[in-house]
Amino acid sequence: MIRTRFAPSPTGNLHIGGLRTALYAYALARHEEGKFILRIEDTDKKREVKGGVKQIQEILKKFNLNWDEGPFIQSERVKTGIYEKAAKRLVKDGHAYEDQGAIRLKIPQNEKISYHDFVLAKEITWDTNSLTDLVILKSDGFPTYHLAVVVDDNDMGITHVLRGHDWLPSTPIHLLIYKYLELTTPKIGHLTDILDPEGGKLSKRKGSTSVEGLLKEGYLPEAILNFVMLLGWAPKDNKEFFTLDEFIKVFDSKGFQKSNPVFNREKLDWFNGQHIRKLSDENLTQKISEFYKNKFEKEKIVLIIPLIKERIKKLSEFNSIAGFFFENPKVDKKLFGKNYRDHIPKAIEGLTNNKELIDIAKENNFKVGDFFMDLRVAVTGNKVTPPFNESIEILGHEKTLERLRIALK
User: Fold this and answer.
1) Domain boundary at 222, 255, 288, which?
2) What is the pLDDT of residue 366?
3) Which of 144, 162, 231, 272 could form an SS bridge with 261, CB 3.0 to 4.6 Å?
4) Structural Rg of the chain based on CA atoms
5) What is the pTM of this model?
């Protein structure tokens, strides 16, 4: 049975690359009807963020990446002595030595060490002369990543390890520890780097590349997940839209790409817009209401949704597109045409007498486009808005007249 794991450190917001690792590990396990394990690697206490462990679990649940076992917390496992026991065995067998209270792995000379990377689909080899002895157990009894990852993956029966490309240089160390402890080495695969459109690897320091940051910007979890699926993996038929269940069904580790993908924000926006349009009006109303923490009346959102659903790309755009429905806009008179002081009074007069706007324009020989544009600016504060006639129908007769009068002042 295939057993995969996601093993993040609680040192800050989950990066988009971390979500991708979790997704691929989850899909690999689910596709083969195996198990997906969550392990928290929190042995670096100096960098740990308060509440980080809970935040990781909440994010995974939000994306429906539900684990079968765990979460296993490494700092709790330290207390069992499992890492210390492994380190002392390495010392006893001559593969490690004590150094100022810590234990270091002893790197052999003039040896070759290699493995087949199942993501990169090639054999990778190192000369041990290029490696240096390094700490595997610190003086405080906590293991470093190199020892803990080997001990835990073996103890938890992990068969396939997926991790970021930046961990590739650590692999020969882990292979040596597996060998010295006489453990079975799992299949190991290193995912491509996600590149910044401006060049280089996508930085964790950019807020917009954290999963929390993207959710706060108004991206839907299902759209983010769909976008992430294709950042390093490609289906055989070039299909782009997948639910999580559909992705699991077609997932194949042979689909991993070798070239580094670029974090394309326009593509993410496009995905999000498409997923928004797949939602029912009721579901989208609920998501907008939750996103804005019930700031807007739900009854009015329901009426507005049909006017904006085809053009909104993110939940965060609702306020800029439809905020005028809820509060009087600030009107910049520079947006008005040269005849607005003719257009608006006639509109007020005609609407007061319950005339249709198109009839008011024709009666006064106004250019219809200019007339309606001035009214649009006066009522909404913008030149680009949802359909105007339907908008003033939602606003109501009195509110429309009130805004026209305000705009004249």
Assistant:
1) 255
2) 96
3) 231
4) 29
5) 0.92
> Which of 241, 234, 302 minimizes the C-alpha distance to 270?
241
What span, in angstroms and rounded, lies between the C-alpha atoms of 107 and 96? 8
Contact (Cβ atoms closer than 8 angstroms) between residue 287 and residue 220:
yes
User: In this structure, is residue 86 part of a structural domain?
Assistant: yes
Count of structural domains, the chain: 4
Catalytic residue among 204, 206, 300, 355: 204
Measured CA distances, 211 to 63, 219, 255, 365, 384 (Å)? 10, 10, 24, 55, 31
Q: What share of the chain is helix, strand, coil (3-state, %, to 5)?
A: 50, 15, 35
Kindly state whether residues 66 and 200 are assigned to the same domain: yes
Q: Is 204 a catalytic residue?
A: yes
Q: What is the pLDDT of residues 164-204, one digit of tens each?
A: 999 999 999 999 999 999 999 999 999 999 998 887 888 66
Please list, residue by residue across 311-322, b when 16 or more beta carbons sit within 10 angstroms of its beta carbon and e when fewer do: ebbbbebbbebb
- Domain containing 136 equals 80-191
SS3 sequence of 92-120: HCCCEEEECCEEEECCCCCCEEEEEECCC
Residue identified by tokens 């609407």 is 351
88 and 176 assigned to the same domain:
yes
Instruction: Tell me whether residue 325 is in a domain.
Output: no
Cα 224 to Cα 382: distance, rounded to the nearest angstrom: 30
Residues 199 and 192: their CA atoms lie apart, in Å, by 15
Residue 49, SS3?
coil
Residues 382-387 have a mean pLDDT of 95
Rounded CA separation 186/169 (Å): 17
Greatest alpha-carbon pair distance for the chain in Å reads: 100
Domain harbouring 131, CATH code: 3.40.50.620
